[in-house]
Amino acid sequence: MSRTTPALAITLFLCLPITLRSDEWGQWLGPKRDGIWRETGLFDAIPADGLKVRWRAPVSLGYGGPAVKDGKVFVMDRVLKEGAKNPANPFDRDKGIPGTERVLCFDAKTGKQLWAFEYDCPYTVSYAGGPRCTPAVDGDRDYDADRVYAHGTEGHLHCLDAQTGKKIWGRKMTENETPVWGYAAHPLVLWNMVIVATNDPKGILVAMDKMTGKVIWQAIPAKECGYSPPVMFDVAGKRQLIQWYPAGVTSLDPETGKVYWTIPQEPMKYGVTIVTPQLLRDSKLGDLLFVSSQYGGALMLKLDKSGNGDPTASVLWKRVGKSDRTSDAIQTLMATPVLRDGHVYGIDAKGQLRGLTAATGDRLWETFETTTYDAGMQSWATAFMTPLGETGPRTLFATEHGDLIVGDLTPAGFKLISKSHLLDPTNTDARRPVLWSQPAYANRSIYWRNDKELVSWSFAKE
């Protein structure tokens, strides 16, 4: 089989039309890794009689959301060995809780299970509630599903035949200690490569040949990789691969792994860098990159280029409160913020949905309407945000209670449009029932999972 070289792949990629088929969600946060649902013909609000359930399918334990491509749904889960139990205290780490991790494939129209791939995987992590990562689906043609890449909690990476579930190749990324809360940085398929983060001090970001698993490059020597996934942006005249990790933010040439720039930071408490870096293109402010952490605060970078054309970055502002209870700007934990129209919208680690000005980080408003409702501050309360379209205020919130909220985000505040309970929260690692899983949005449908089932609802007007 012939293989496309990285340089040729880049050229071909640049020649593709910019309009994407919008009924696919084949990786974390969708086609552009920005969490925007671009399909048309969707509801503006939840109907009075609720959303129609298309199908339900049984699954087991897991945080990781599904991926949807080429008529198939892919998701990971964990099955405990008979008689095994997770620690009574979810914060405890065990020497090895016996069980298997699985990659499951379902028919996107009917929910019928098509295949399952499983492997032995004793857990040593805190919060042992299953895999964290969304699979990445790849095809020889843009909208085919030929291969699926699954990154497990303990660092196992598998490339599987998307049609049959047969293993093409697999490896354990490192024998070094697994991060406290497991590997959670969703894999990125880019041209001829699959890119993952791992706890390897020689380089926490590894690019491999997607067909063989052979390492192409390894970059960013650091103590730990954190939990944030790599993401690529076309900015400042270059394609830049961005990795946020406990010691900083780094931009690389995705073809070679060459570092363009690094903005260092004080090592993040507990290594908690989780959200996916997001880009704001603003006519007045220029190109901005935003990251936020519960303990490290919010950081806005201005992206530019030097006189010789190399990408550069500088700190526009950084805001951090005295503690995570007296936070500044947005100190978010899990939910990737939404950036648009000169503003930042995100959920603080204690549950406050906040609006900020992108230029300064000044807070405009806050509300608990999408997280704890009337309960006020609650540790790690969250909702996963998905804008409906590239413009406009309409946004979906998949809450940890299993509710779907439709609302508007504007500089003036949050406006609740509609709300409906869809799925029961089954995970108790937070010492309360929670649903910490990002849905997938494709085929004018919602795909969401808990620890018992994967469910699809229609969100189509017709």
TrEMBL record:
<dbReference type="InterPro" id="IPR011047">
    <property type="entry name" value="Quinoprotein_ADH-like_sf"/>
</dbReference>
<protein>
    <submittedName>
        <fullName>PQQ-like beta-propeller repeat protein</fullName>
    </submittedName>
</protein>
<dbReference type="Pfam" id="PF13360">
    <property type="entry name" value="PQQ_2"/>
</dbReference>
<dbReference type="InterPro" id="IPR015943">
    <property type="entry name" value="WD40/YVTN_repeat-like_dom_sf"/>
</dbReference>
<feature type="domain" description="Pyrrolo-quinoline quinone repeat">
    <location>
        <begin position="101"/>
        <end position="321"/>
    </location>
</feature>
<dbReference type="InterPro" id="IPR002372">
    <property type="entry name" value="PQQ_rpt_dom"/>
</dbReference>
<feature type="domain" description="Pyrrolo-quinoline quinone repeat">
    <location>
        <begin position="328"/>
        <end position="392"/>
    </location>
</feature>
<dbReference type="InterPro" id="IPR018391">
    <property type="entry name" value="PQQ_b-propeller_rpt"/>
</dbReference>
